[in-house]
Design brief:
Helices cover 39% and strands 15% of the residues. By secondary structure, the protein is α/β, with parallel strands linked by helices. It has an 8-stranded parallel barrel with strand order 1-2-3-4-5-6-7-8, surrounded by 6 helices. The structure holds 2-phosphoglycolic acid. The site of 2-phosphoglycolic acid has 13 residues, from strand 8.
């Protein structure tokens, strides 16, 4: 499996021009990292413009969220079906900021994962414990419950065909500069793999990618790849600085 680097721009940048510049700067280096899978997840309103900029660059586009229903009277929501026209074939689902600020539940996340898989959009499913859960030694328990419910009624075939990406993102590590210990990420990686074997079988492991996210920088990126056995990284804050983001891609 190739190495995956996902940029989550969140609610940034504020201006289209800045978004275009960021994408253009990253694209200029794309020939150097053609064997790696780089996925940029910008705000929805920039997808159209970024599709043009990134055409033929090999850099892929992803959404930061989708709605759990395909279509209808859901004011303000974006359908997974709308993404394909923008060559946007990935979607972050269940990010901790959505769980926290928009009160997304495991049930809704499960609906979204199912819908994405049905529509051939690869889910980037985010799971992770918060600070209190970490202090109470509940990390594995939380991960098991989040993953089991997110994958409820999802078959082995759906998982394999979708190329599911599971992102381990401890909530306390996101945007804090307090990145997780690579050894802990290694044990989480093994735990997730064991859980996938329990829920499905060993064959799914060949198709599921596990990535780490939470205060990744150009200094720590390669450590996770080498010591935690993950297939890739999900980068938030630092993905907004083209130089640093390119360094991350080059370093792994
Ligand atoms: P961060 O964000 O790299 O700024 O910690 C990661 C994420 O939220 O995906």
């Amino acid at each position: 499996m190739g190495k995956i680097i996902i940029a989550n721009w969140k609610e940034n940048p504020i201006k289209l021009k800045e978004a275009e510049k960021l994408a253009t700067d990253i694209k200029q280096k794309s020939a150097d990292f053609s064997e790696k899978e780089v996925i940029i997840c910008p705000p929805f309103v920039y997808l159209s413009s970024l599709k043009e900029i990134l055409a033929d660059s090999g850099i892929k586009l992803g959404a930061q969220n989708i709605f759990a229903e395909m279509q209808g009277a859901y004011t303000g929501e974006i359908s997974v079906g709308m993404l394909q026209d923008f060559d946007c074939n990935y979607a972050i689902i269940g990010h901790s900021e959505r769980r926290k600020y928009f009160r997304e539940t495991n049930e809704e996340i499960n609906q979204k994962v199912k819908l994405a898989m049905k529509e051939k959009v690869t889910p980037i499913l985010c799971v992770g414990e918060d600070q209190i859960e970490k202090e109470n030694d509940q990390t594995m328990q939380v991960l098991e419950s989040q993953l089991t419910s997110a994958l409820n009624e999802i078959t082995e075939k759906m998982v394999i065909n979708s190329g599911l990406i599971v992102a381990y993102e401890p909530v306390w590590a996101i945007g804090t500069g307090n990145n997780a210990d690579p050894e802990v990420v290694l044990s989480v990686n093994i735990f997730i793999k064991k859980l996938l074997i329990k829920l499905y079988n060993r064959a799914v492991l060949k198709k599921v990618n596990i990535v780490y996210g939470g205060s990744v920088t150009s200094k720590t990126a390669s450590v996770y790849m080498e010591e935690s056995g993950v297939n890739g990284l999900l980068v938030g804050g630092v993905s907004l600085k083209s130089n640093e983001f390119i360094k991350i891609i080059e370093s792994i």
